[in-house]
Design brief:
390 residues
Length: 390
């Protein structure tokens, strides 16, 4: 009888403990903030979490590209003996034995009559070049400060993990700097389109009437302008004397000015449905100005959806910059962007002989897919009470 009583007591205690834990979870769920609910649902989506980590790694790689890469990607002809060179993969052992330090082989190139004066590469497997960490190299600026230390290099000569292009530029260095450039273009474009969308959509949705009609006519006009002919005209307008920085900011601004109508439509639609709610009428009776009501009451009521739109807009901005640079209407050398690098993969010679030119394409695809997965995850998590409807 004593054992049965103890078992019953333990069972009752466990039941009470579980019930108390369930109550605490429910209380935490219904008292959580909007951000906490969104994060809780976002964490449950594996694809979105993987995309978020990949995106964070790529963004940090782009920001710290001058340190992570061994060379300045804008200098051509640095390695004259290794133009259009294949990727050099460090190794620890070969037929000559094992090495605790990773190494690469020394490659020499020469022309001969036997090969119709074409470049022929010869690998000297006895001449090892060892990889070193934190060597001194090209001077660069990071967050306003000058540095010369890079993450890795070799004790003699040069190392090209992704190979080199026809001018001898290191593709590894160009790729990581290109990610940073494309992300910067996307950030500036998204910021401009975000500000315009909130301003125009907010005014249009709050006031309605003739103000809404005029602003919507302007929005429809922007949406109907074909992008490619517009950029062809702008490309003809841009002077050849413009520097790479001037062309960069010009492309970013134009992308922002044509990218705001979609978000502005969403903001307008939400404000049209919310402007007659009781909390808005109460703010009006208290003497709040229209700008205060829009900024402090209406826009925060769907902040999560605005964040989702911003994240989803990034890959489209990156795609736009890449497409424009790819067809020669956007950024050009010496600026390194993903679109500029993709220009070099269009020839049949590259496809047949220099397949390592396609390595930046892989990074471009991964970057866009990471944004898409994160955007989809945020869109699903933007309705934090969706689980309660099931």
């Amino acid at each position: 009888m004593t054992d049965a009583s103890n078992t019953a007591t333990d069972t009752a205690t466990d039941t009470a403990t579980n019930a108390a834990a369930d109550r605490k979870l429910k209380e935490a769920y219904f008292t959580a903030s909007q951000g906490q609910l969104i994060w809780a649902r976002f964490r449950k989506q594996k694809a979105a979490m993987v995309g978020a980590w990949v995106l964070i790694i790529l963004i940090l790689s782009g920001l710290f590209a001058p340190f992570l890469t061994p060379y300045d990607p804008t200098i051509a002809g640095r390695d004259k003996d290794y133009q259009n060179g294949a990727p050099e993969i460090p190794r620890f052992w070969d037929e000559n034995g094992f090495s605790f330090r990773p190494f690469i082989y020394t490659t020499t190139r020469e022309r001969s009559i036997a090969t119709n004066f074409r470049w022929v590469s010869e690998i000297d497997r006895d001449a090892r070049r060892y990889v070193v960490l934190f060597p001194q190299g090209d001077k660069y600026k990071l967050f306003g400060m000058s540095f010369e230390t890079h993450l890795f290099g070799v004790d003699k000569g040069y190392i090209h993990l992704f190979g080199t292009d026809s001018t001898g530029k290191d593709i590894f260095s160009r790729t990581f700097h290109a990610i940073n450039t494309s992300m910067a273009v996307g950030t500036i474009g998204v910021f401009i389109s975000f500000v315009l969308a909130l301003l125009i959509g907010g005014v249009s949705g709050y006031f309605g009437g003739w103000v809404d009609s005029i602003l919507q006519m302007m929005t429809d006009t922007i949406r109907t302008v074909p992008a490619i002919p517009l950029f062809m005209a702008l490309a003809a307008f841009i002077p050849d004397t413009w520097s790479a920085e001037e062309r960069f900011f010009f492309i970013s601004i134009i992308l922002g000015f044509i990218g705001w109508p979609t978000l502005a439509r969403r903001v307008r639609t939400h404000l049209l449905t919310e402007r007659n709610q009781e909390y808005v009428l109460a703010a009006q009776l208290c003497g709040a100005s229209p700008s205060h009501i829009i900024r402090k009451h209406l826009l925060p009521s769907f902040t999560s959806y605005i964040i989702v739109d911003l994240v989803i807009s990034f890959p489209y901005m990156v795609l736009s910059e890449t497409a424009l640079s790819f067809i020669g209407l956007g950024l050009k050398d010496p600026v390194n962007s993903l679109g500029v690098m993709l220009q070099s993969v269009t020839s049949a010679d590259v496809l047949l002989n220099y397949q390592w030119y396609f390595i930046p394409v892989i990074f471009f695809i991964v970057l866009v897919l990471a944004f898409v997965f994160v955007g989809d995850g945020l869109r699903d998590a933007a309705d934090p009470y969706g689980d309660t409807k099931k």
